[in-house]
Design goal:
The protein has about 190 residues and is of the alpha/beta class. The chain is about 40% helix and about 20% strand. It has six helices and seven strands, in the order βαβαβαβαβαββα. The chain starts with a strand and ends with a helix. The mean pLDDT is about 95. The structure holds 5-O-phosphono-beta-D-ribofuranosylamine. Pathway: Purine metabolism; IMP biosynthesis via de novo pathway; N(2)-formyl-N(1)-(5-phospho-D-ribosyl)glycinamide from N(1)-(5-phospho-D-ribosyl)glycinamide (10-formyl THF route): step 1/1. This is Phosphoribosylglycinamide formyltransferase. Its EC number is 2.1.2.2.
């Protein structure tokens, strides 16, 4: 299954997806890494892994979100992408793009959804006194950070954790979880 990974930043989840795809028995391949941020650090990481990396800067499209998404979509179609994995893609999608990829787009979110959709998840979990945090992979639907959950991993919140410390622990869990859940997803949805 031909997968594109959409990023906006460091792309560490993208790297874990791409590295897992190197295994002979992995059911997906990462054929494209696309960023809305021209100098996203993850683009260079993709190149280093021998994966085609492109940027489609949203700034060039001003306020016209759909026009930007149409340009993104064209890049995906050009490479015969079958499944899209969002991995730190910091744009809210319009219903248009969501419908185009209905049932074929997944996202990773750094909280135990339905807890803490949106930003600053780790600070919110700490402020709430939670003893557990984690990450969620879900199918993308029109509501932000909603949609059917297809995988979750839990980590403890430790006494004295800062948001950064917790983020790091959750990231390790993300990197283990995403390749595994994406593999399951493509097997179930594409075969
Ligand atoms: C991750 O924490 C992911 O859950 C969230 O954005 C972050 C992306 O990190 N959606 P990276 O770019 O994969 O390092």
């Amino acid at each position: 299954t031909r997968v594109a990974v959409l990023i906006s930043g460091s792309g560490t989840n993208m790297v874990s997806l791409a590295k897992a795809a190197q295994a002979a028995d992995c059911p997906y391949e990462v054929v494209l890494v696309l960023s809305n941020i021209e100098d996203a650090a993850g683009l260079q990481k993709a190149c280093d892994l021998g994966i085609e990396a492109v940027s489609v800067p949203h700034r060039a499209f001003g306020k016209d979100r759909e026009a930007h998404e149409k340009a993104v979509h064209a890049e995906l179609q050009k490479r015969d992408v079958q499944v899209v994995a969002l991995a730190g893609y910091m744009r809210i999608l319009t219903p248009w793009l969501v419908r185009e990829w209905e049932g074929r787009m997944v996202n990773i979110h750094p909280s135990l959804l339905p807890l803490y959709p949106g930003l600053d998840t780790h600070a919110r979990a700490i402020a709430a006194g939670d003893t557990e945090a984690g990450c969620t992979i879900h199918i993308v639907t029109e509501g932000m950070d909603e949609g059917p959950i297809i995988g979750q991993a839990r980590v403890p919140v430790m006494q004295g954790d800062t948001p950064d410390m917790l983020a790091e622990r959750v990231k390790e869990a993300e990197h283990r979880l995403y390749p595994q859940i994406l593999s399951n997803f493509v097997i179930q949805s594409c075969n």
